[in-house]
Amino acid sequence: MLALTLNEKEVATLNGALESYLSDLATERAGTDNREWNEELREEETILADIQKRLGGLKS
Length: 60
Known about the structure:
This protein has two helices and no strands. By secondary structure, the protein is mainly α. It has one domain. The chain is elongated. The two termini are 21 Å apart.
């Protein structure tokens, strides 16, 4: 496991970047007809959403 120390501003910035990227990722996933690519995007979306959820619970 990897540990990363972030200050409050860094957490907020990373959370904002994840929010923006996840929105774009959902749009891209909805627009693809390729099942394999869709599944890869879904997996990436799940992983990043979990990270974002954990970031939301951090308090500096």
